[in-house]
């Protein structure tokens, strides 16, 4: 490893706490002070324009190994989460990747997709090590890679009940989770036979399913791959049109989502008769998705793998 080749240091630091020796060594190699603790909604960045690398640390990574976010004393536990590498970086690159490759060459080597609200062309590279991910983004004006993302592997988050949060704010998430479980959206091995039977027989409520049987998480790896883009767009208001999303359906059926209600407002109850009111909406949205009437604004499955 040369003086400007920080790849081994970076790969060692990703996923480590910022006070871990690997993270401290990376910060020193970047010529920076140690990482500071992040706070909710804020990410800490260290970088070197000269070296062509920017590294970030976060207190929240959507990966089950890092869930839930937690405090150590008064500070949030913070992890080295991801890094952007730019064409002037002179360190080692993932196998098969090179800054000189154009769209056709990149597409021949890696899975190509159009992603994000800006509909950027991105390529999924092999993970540099277990637990990480790598993705390159094309500069379409230059027809060459703009940057490379190296990061802790994450899942898309559809619904999360955080420890200490009021479960009543997640009642509608429980309804959607129950619909997913009852209609073959969850992965086959995600629920045990006893839990699925209890749900079908309505011996447990939808919110109990989400909080207990699913551990408070309805994330990307909980659903079948063919349903992932739909669940992400529907649950996170990333649908086109926007009103074909979970929040707007909850508002149309119940008046509002519990998470958005003001103090003292009547809340939608975790009951099966309430589930029966909104379940047809879920089925309608899934059929509209299959018919191409609604789509994700960040994940573009139709023609996404075709080259330009």
UniProtKB/TrEMBL annotation:
InterPro entries: DUF7832
Pfam families in the record: DUF7832
Domain DUF7832 stretches: 174-255
Name by which UniProt lists this protein: DUF7832 domain-containing protein
Originating organism: Lysobacter enzymogenes
């Amino acid at each position: 490893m040369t003086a400007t080749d920080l790849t081994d240091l970076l790969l060692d630091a990703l996923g480590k706490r910022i006070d871990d020796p690997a993270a401290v060594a990376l910060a020193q190699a970047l010529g920076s002070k140690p990482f500071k603790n992040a706070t909710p909604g804020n990410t800490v960045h260290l970088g070197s324009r000269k070296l062509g690398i920017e590294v970030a640390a976060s207190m929240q990574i959507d990966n089950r190994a890092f869930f839930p976010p937690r405090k150590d004393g008064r500070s949030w536990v913070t992890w080295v989460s991801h890094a952007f590498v730019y064409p002037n970086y002179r360190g080692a690159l993932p196998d098969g990747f090179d800054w000189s490759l154009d769209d056709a060459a990149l597409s021949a080597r890696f899975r190509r997709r159009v992603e994000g609200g800006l509909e950027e062309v991105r390529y999924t590279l092999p993970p540099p090590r277990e637990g990480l991910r790598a993705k390159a983004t094309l500069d379409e004006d230059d027809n060459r890679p703009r940057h490379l993302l190296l990061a802790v592997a994450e899942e898309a988050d559809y619904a999360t009940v955080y420890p200490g949060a009021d479960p009543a704010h997640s009642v509608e998430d429980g309804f959607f989770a129950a619909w997913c479980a009852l209609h073959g959206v969850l992965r086959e091995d995600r629920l045990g036979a006893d839990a699925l039977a209890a749900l079908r027989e309505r011996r447990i409520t939808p919110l109990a399913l989400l909080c207990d049987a699913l551990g408070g998480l309805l994330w990307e790896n909980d659903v079948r791959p063919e349903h992932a883009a739909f669940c992400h767009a529907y649950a996170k208001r990333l649908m086109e049109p926007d009103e074909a999303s979970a929040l707007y359906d909850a508002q149309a059926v119940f008046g509002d989502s519990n998470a958005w209600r003001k103090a003292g407002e009547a809340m939608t109850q975790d009951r099966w008769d309430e589930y029966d009111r909104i379940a047809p909406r879920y089925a309608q949205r899934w059929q509209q998705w299959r018919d191409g009437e609604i789509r994700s604004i960040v994940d573009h499955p139709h023609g996404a793998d075709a080259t330009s």
